[in-house]
Amino acid sequence: MIDLSSTISISFRSLMVNKMRSSLTMLGIVIGVGAVIAMLAVGSGARQRIAEQISSMGSNLIIILPGATTSGGVRMGAGTQSTLSMADAEAIQRESPAVQYVAPVLNGVSQVIAGSQNWSTGVTGTTPDMLQVKDWPLAAGRAFTGDDVRSAAKVALLGQTVVDNLFGDADPVGQVVRIKNVPFTVVGMLDRKGQSPNGQDQDDVIYVPVTTAQKKLFGTAFPGMVRTIMVKAKSADDLDDAEHQITELLRQRHRLGPRQDNDFTVRNLTQMMQTQEQSTRVMTILLGAIASVSLLVGGIGIMNIMLVSVTERTREIGIRMAIGARTWDIRLQFLIEALTLSLIGGIFGIVIGISGSEILSALAGWPTTVSLLSVVLAFSFSGVVGMFFGFYPAYKASLLDPIEALRYE
After folding, report:
1. Of 342, 389, 377, nearest in space to 36 by CA
2. Is the pTM of this model over 0.70?
3. Other C-beta atoms within 10 Å of 309: how many?
4. What are phi and psi of 404, to 5 degrees?
5. Cβ–Cβ contacts within 10 Å for residue 305, how many?
6. Are 126 and 63 in contact (CB under 8 A)?
7. How confident is the model at residue 46 (pLDDT cuts 50, 70, 90)?
8. C-alpha–C-alpha distance, residues 149 and 151, integer Å
9. What does the alpha-carbon distance between residue 402 and residue 404 come to, in Å, rounded to a whole number?
10. Which pLDDT does position 68 carry in this prediction?
11. Does residue 167 sit in helix, strand or coil?
């Protein structure tokens, strides 16, 4: 009987005798492990980016658009008709138990002037509840109040992009900006939000009271009408109830018959974003699966080289058997060699994968996140590949006849 330490020592010496061949055999595993880690890092980075964007938009969001996709067989785009009003928003807040906050929106684009600087940006008329709907804190100053809305006060909240372009490093609170030549006093500055899931700069915005927007900036032929209504449900579990309650309420308020199509569209933004995140998760799994094919190719390479090694070392195997090595000792020796190749290749692959994901992130500007789970998964898979593809050569070596092996030239 030969002890385990001797078997391991013999396996390592055999690998060291053919360093170049061992290195080339490991190359497939190195590339496979590196590819798996890099691809999972890209997918994780994408999911993290989407999660941040979802969080930046707020939680449990529902958006109500005027118009409908179809009406009496005629296809129309949502938002093409003026069918939502301030009264609708107030009714939703008052009569929908699953709704927490409601913010009507009347927006447009305008050139904004502050001193000698000017900037074209989106101006949104809304109510103070918009900050709660979008989970948007203030960086400085205060929010406008219900009294500001009722009195159509000329006050404004500025996003960070607007502040950067109009005031630079100066404090904008208390300053005056002119929107369509109407002077507005800046009462607060919104905290930085970043990009939305569709790539828009959320910080490039000015909030003013919705009544001020109606009377001073974007007056329409239909007084009291708004472009959209943003709603925040009380919780994620209340989203479906909120959708149902809003739909029933608006159909009742708009006097729609049982056979009439909705003249509005209710969209659950949270579910849409979660669906997008789920798609990215599937993409991550797919990328990892594709990259793992490289590991399988590397395993085939190990099996090929091990079979060659068994043929070359037939006489050595015969001598070991003649001095007392059992079938299991021979099998274990070749399994250890295959496992050593795959695990050392896995270690180099981890280094290559982490470095590659960092380089990819730096060159492409794409966020990557290397998780401990992906490293452990890829390294473990490389070990399994080594054991799987090393078993047949080891099994073949262990079945050699000692006498025939000693005669082998």
Report:
1. 377
2. no
3. 22
4. -65, -35
5. 22
6. no
7. confident
8. 6
9. 6
10. 64
11. coil
